[in-house]
Amino acid sequence: MSKKWKITVPGSTANLGPGFDSIGLSLSLYLQLTVTLQDEWEIIHLSEDLPKKFEIEDHLIYKIANETAKRYNKVMPACRIEMTSELPFARGIGSSAAAIVAGIEIANLLCDLQLTVQDKLNLSSQFEGHPDNATASVLGGLTISSMDDEGNVDTIHIHDLDASFVLFIPDVKLKTAEARNVLPDTFKRPYAVQASAGANMLAAALVLKDYERIGKYMESDLFHEPFRANLVPYYHEIRKEAKKAGAYGTALSGAGPTMISIIPESIGQQFVAKMEELFPTHKIILTKPDQHGVHVEEISSVSKL
Predict the structure, then answer these.
(1) For the GHMP kinase C-terminal domain, which residue ranges apply (predicted)?
(2) Three-state SS string across 197-238, please?
């Protein structure tokens, strides 16, 4: 008999404006995997947006599972993975972080690593390079995090934001490396002070759940959005029209090109209808924060023929 597991990982948005590389919010959009032990590796993509052709050795989940096992002096056993995803690649909604979190869970299950939540936060943030998306996918809800030079993550975790979020997903990709290449290497002190103040106010407003201020400071970023705006289709128009339609505020989702608005729960459907009318080239998705983070369920045992 061979065990079979279902792993569900929420996607996420990062930054929310000036919370650069430190603020993450889980979304109710998911990467789901069914994992079964078998003699050879097999990864099957079941969603249309996932690539059909790839080498197993190049697959991010395969690489993360093996690297996680290696860190604990274990040998990763082969398995069959069937994947579905609601997270389009290179759109700024945490597809790589979700895959990293999934890879860690696979190694944890199949190698019996008995990782703690803190272990998972540290590992996923180290692999991702920053703790924003990774911590949100592990924990759910909203996370405000830092990671020291040794890769240790400290996270403030906030649940139950009483608001909805709307994603504006264009039909173009923007890889994080490309989006980082347009950022300046240094800021002058007065500019950095102003940028940091916006980040501090955003974090405080999120802790207080002061939605008007959250929206205001989401739109105050000076760290990255002014430099990335020209890479994002309809960046200025989306911010303007979303505010007119009742959004508290709008920002890039991660590095973009997706944008995200925070809105009152009461206007969700009418807001989406208006945005679909104004931006027909974008996929408009109404969502809520996921409150659970990564979830693992043993679903059955299957006979090996």
Answers:
(1) 203-280
(2) HHHHHHHHHHHHCCHHHHHHHHCCCCCCHHHHHHHCCCHHHH
CATH number for the domain spanning 53: value is 3.30.230.10
pTM: 0.94
Residue 127 token pair: 């692999």
Point out which residues pair with 167 in neighbouring strands: 260, 285
Q: Are residues 148 and 177 in the same domain?
A: no
Looking at the structure of the chain, the number of domains it has is: 2
For the stretch 76-98, pLDDT in tens is 999 999 999 999 887 889 999 99
In this structure, which amino acid lies at residue 258?
T
Give the whole-angstrom CA distance, residue 250 versus residue 263: 9
By the 8 A CB rule, do 136 and 142 touch? yes
- In tens, the pLDDT along 40-53 reads 999 999 988 787 88
Q: pLDDT tens, 8-45?
A: 999 999 999 999 999 999 999 999 999 999 999 999 99
- Same domain for 51 and 12, yes or no, is yes
Ranges of beta strands (E only) in the chain are: 2-14, 23-37, 42-45, 79-85, 142-147, 153-158, 164-169, 249-252, 259-263, 283-287, 295-302
Please tell me whether residues 13 and 102 are part of one structural domain.
yes
Classify strands 153-158 and 42-45 as parallel, antiparallel or unpaired: unpaired
